TrEMBL record:
Example GO BP: DNA-templated transcription initiation
Family: Belongs to the sigma-70 factor family. ECF subfamily.
Keyword DNA-binding: yes
Protein's name according to its UniProt entry: RNA polymerase sigma factor
Species in which this protein is naturally found: Pinibacter aurantiacus
PROSITE patterns referenced in this protein's UniProt entry, alphabetically: SIGMA70_ECF (PS01063)
Highest taxon of source: Bacteria
Domain RNA polymerase sigma factor 70 region 4 type: start-end pairs: 134-183
Domain RNA polymerase sigma-70 region: 36-100
N-terminal signal peptide: none
GO molecular function (one): sigma factor activity
Family annotation (InterPro entries): RNA_pol_sigma-70-like, RNA_pol_sigma-70_dom, RNA_pol_sigma70_bacteroid, RNA_pol_sigma70_ECF_CS, RNA_pol_sigma70_r2, RNA_pol_sigma70_r4_t2
Pfam families: Sigma70_r2, Sigma70_r4_2
Alphabetized UniProt keyword annotations: DNA-binding, Sigma factor, Transcription, Transcription regulation
Amino acid sequence: MKLTYFTRNAALHADLPEQDVLLLLKEGNKEAFIQIYNTYHHLLYGYAIKFLKNPQFAEDIIQEVFIKVWELRSNINPSLSFKSYLFTITRNSIFKLIKKIATDEKMRTEMAWHLGNKIVDPDLQLQWQQYSLILNAAIDRLPPQRKKVFKLCRLEGKKYEEVATELNLTRNTVKEHMVLAVRSIREYVGRHADMELMVALSIAVMVKS
């Protein structure tokens, strides 16, 4: 399914109530689909870009959301809030992307680059100060040895083997400290930061293999 084809070729049911449009969508009506697409695209994009800061990532999320809506159209219940339904799918897709970023070095770099290049904005500078305060507080709560390992690996950029030699530990012990440190930090962040903070901080504390 190509969304661009629909947007360029579908006549819209602009005068119909949304429930009627959704009933048509359930039946596979492409014009109804694009009516919904045009109604909610901008709103959902604004929601996604707030967290992801990357226009391409945000647009990819929204395209994925609407493709999913089309594929699952028969399950739509017009009597329930369709707006809430869309935001739930979008939120889940954002979390799914964050998990993917966690395991993809290229995506982490791209996300960090986009965040870092916006740091000149005063509001974002304040957000980054909040990120730092929460992250530092989470690191300070770690046991002494685990904190030392985390700082050497993550903040100084040393490899596990280097840290193991410096601290007279095995590589597996260093890795275990890092896994536990990241888990502790994420739990702390989850209790003290909103979703936007978690996106940025998740990039900073990812465990390298």
